[in-house]
Structures are given as C-alpha cells and as structure tokens.
Amino acid sequence: MSDQSSRVFRKAALDRLSDPDQLDEAIRVVRPFDLVAVLALACLVAAGVVWLFLGQVKTLVPGDGIFAPADGAIVQVSAPAEGSLSALLVTTGQAVTAGMPLAQISQPELRLELAQAQAAVAELQARNATREAQIADRARSRDAGLAARRAALDEQIAATTRRVSVQADQLARDEALLARGLVVRRAVEDSRRQLDDARQALLDFKAALVALDGEALAAKQQDDRDRAALAEELRIQQERVTQLDLRAREFQVVLAPADGRVKELLARPGERVAPGVRIATLETGAAPVRLVAYVAPETGKRIAPGMAALVVPSTVRRAETGGLRARVLSVSSAPVSPQAMIAVLGNESLLPRFAPLGAPFEVVIELERDTDTGAPLWATGQGPTLEIDSGTLATAEITVRIDPPIALLMPAIKALLRGGGGS
Fold it and tell me: Coiled coil located at which positions (predicted)?
C-alpha cells in the first residue's frame, strides 16, 4: 500500500513539472537581506525578553533641597538695641569668629541720656562737697560748744566734790559736838541736809556730763548718716552712669555669636533698627556640605538611610552632567515644622517652595566623593570641576525601589489571565 502511494505521489509531481501551465511561474528564492531582518527581529525579541527579566526599573522620589555645612546651622544676628545702623563691618561670604564685630549701631538717645547722667553726677559731687563742708563746719561749732559745756561741768563737778568733802567733815564735827552736848540737834540736821544737797548736786552734774557725751555721740551719728545719705545718692547716680555707659559700649557694636560665615546681610547703613530686628545671618559648621532635601509627606516614609540618590545643583544642567551621585544619610522620623526648616533655609520666604503640600520630611543627603581628591562624583563619570557652596539650591531624586520590568507587567498579566479564565 505504501509503495503504491509513493508511486502515485511521484507520478503527480512529474506530471506537475511537465505541465506547460507551470512554465510561467518564477522560482522563489529567500534574499540575504530578508534573512538579516528576520535574525535582527529575533535578536530584538530575545533582548526584550532578557530585559524583562534582567533589566532595572527605578522608583524615584523627587525633592528640592539646599546645601548646608555638615553639622551646621543658620544663626540669626539681631540688633541688641534701638538705634541707627551706622556701619557694616563685614561682607557677605566673609568668615567670622565668635565675638567678632559685625556692625555698629549709633544710639543718640542713649548717648544723650548718658551725658545727662554724667552731668547729674558732676552736679551731685559739687553739691555733696558743699554739704560736706557744711557738715564739717557744724561739727566744729558743735564740738566747740560741747567742749565748753564739758569744761564747765568738770569745774562744777570738782567744786561740788570739794563741797561734799567739806560738808561731810562738818557733819562729823557736829555729830561729835552733839554727843558732848555742845550743840543742838538742829545744827546736826542742817549739816546733814547740806551734805545731801551737795551729793545730789554732784550726781546731777555727773548726769549732765553723761548726757553731754550722749549728745555729742548722737550729733556725730547724725553727721555720719548725713554723709552716708550723700554717698548713697552719689553711688546710685554713678551706678546709673556705669550701666548707661556699659549699654552704650555693649550695644554700639553687634558681635558674632558663633564661628561661621556671613550668609546674608539684611540691613544697610543708615537704617533704623530695634531690638530683635535681624541684621545678618551666619552659617555655622564646616565643609563638606550636605544636601538637606524636603520631600512630600506621603513619600517620606518610603526613604531609608543608604538609598542612592541623584543630586542636580541649580548651577548645572542635568542634560550635560547627569547630576551628582549621592546617598541618603538620614531621614526625619516625622514631618518637620516650619521653624526647623527656617533654621536650615535661613529665609522664611523659601518655605512655600520647599513645603508646597504641607509639612515635608527632611532628608539629609551626602555626596559621594573621590577618595583621592575629595571632589564630588558625577553620574556620567565626567563633569565640570564644581565648588558647591552652602546655600546652593538643588533637586534630588532618591531611588526607593529597583524592580525588573517583568515585575511591573505581572499585575497586568495576572489580571488578563483572570479575565480570560472568567470568560
């Protein structure tokens, strides 16, 4: 049966070749170009399949930031007192040390008050000198009077003492005569009364002398109180002068509160300032700079330290350089407050740009640097020599996830398969 079929098929083929109707058809030949196209298409398909499984699709979180020194901060320098800004002693970008003069403030009102206080001290000193002379004259006059009264009392005491002695002797004689009956008792009583009177007079004179000493002491104490009152009045006025002079000296010059660099000068000479008005901002901390970026609140929790980032400073074009390679150093655990942002940005007007959708998360990004030169590394491998100063704005893209393309297609494939199975 098989041999018969083979003969039939061969006969049909021979008949077909010998049929004159087939002589006008050309022989089809596969050209090399078509073969190359087929092979190229096959390679593309194979490459696509390989890319689906081995390729990388990055999930990026964008953010805007500003470069700031590592471990640095923005310090506001405010006017310590009311006055007129007479001079600025530094320029923007200048390095300063703590205690270095930054500006001078003219305070004519305080200077006038100080001059008036100094004049009051001089007037009080002259008045006190006059009053001191008066007190001294009064004391000399009083002391002379007291000395005369004391001398008189001393004489009276001496005379009365002699009188007491005489009266005592007279009483003794009268008592002896009375015992012998030579005098009457009345004479003895008179002698005794005279002796008592003399003794009482002596006590009175001595008491007057003690009172005189007390009067002298009281007068001296009053002089001391008067002098103390004068000295206290002068001391208070001199202390006021000292305080005003200290204020004039202290508030005349605005000093740098810390080491750093002048980031911005916010006032100009001749402007009127008041306590708390910002004159300048200082940037503390040392190089190298880090990028402090702010990301939307809904994406902040997707970022973790160590994640790769691409940073593009505002001073370069991404199309030309590709950006700088970087790594996430830290991320805030919660959205940051406007006050914390101002401490980094140094300018409240920048808040709308960095927090357009509410309180953002703060991400500190550290640039990758060449181990030999310390220069930042460009994503393209080559880039311009760039000196990044603090305060430079930049954009950042943080890679939070890397997936093969097939992983992104799997949800659609699964949904398609489920839909096909359902039908």
Answer: 107-134
